[in-house]
Amino acid sequence: MFGKLIEFPFDTIKVRLQAATPVDSVTPSTLSMIKLTYKNEGITNGFYKGLKAPLIGACVETGILFSSYNYAVWKFKKDEISEPSLAIKCVSGGFAGFMASFVLTPIELIKCQLQVSNLVIPESTAKKPVGISYIPLIQSIIKKDGIPGLWNGLSSTLMREILGTAVWFGTYEFVSQANVLNVNNDFNSLISGAIAGLTFNLSIFPIDTIKSNIQTFEMLNKNPKSLNQFDFWSITKSLITRNGGIRNLYNGLGITLIRCVPANAIIFYSYEVLKRNF
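Request: output the structure for the sequence above.
Response:
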């Protein structure tokens, strides 16, 4: 929850940049998106739109993530005494990402759609953002696609989490164990968590962009039937063939790397402190 509170405003801008359609062949910049969000929606309704579900979901997601990781490490290591290898830790991280994806997908679906919902402008009004809340949004998804519709984007979430979480835990364990700066445990956790966040996002960002577009495509497009919003490769092709090419897969990377340093530092630091004290 600490990590989510820190990263959420940055994440809102990231998702909007990932899902943004170029205007006059120009993709919005990070600064222009921040200014637009603040001007039209303010801080609470703009930067923190859709916070409640991820905040609650972060407890479930991270609980599953760390418990699955520790369980896998325990099952895969050779004996009770020896330190598990880095390979075992990476595989265990991938397993943790697989397990967390099933909880994470519906949470992120709702989060992403709420984050971009204020960008939807109805034809009948003069450029006024459309407000939307959790219950109506969930009801509309279930009405259209049934309960399985809440897992729209599962395949891309699985790809992102299996690869990314393997890198995430692997980097954290490697940097933490190396402790090249020879600092105390708390500061070591902060540094290792920050670096783990950087490597996670650098390794999976194009997949994350595709996932965000899959989960927001229907909301932001007037003619969603023109493209299969559930098709990973169809969405990928639409992104790389429009103006900007491959760079479209990296929209929002800069602000993501800024946000992930404090957020992931706090996540791992909180985990280590709580583990020691409970």
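The chain has one domain: 2-277.
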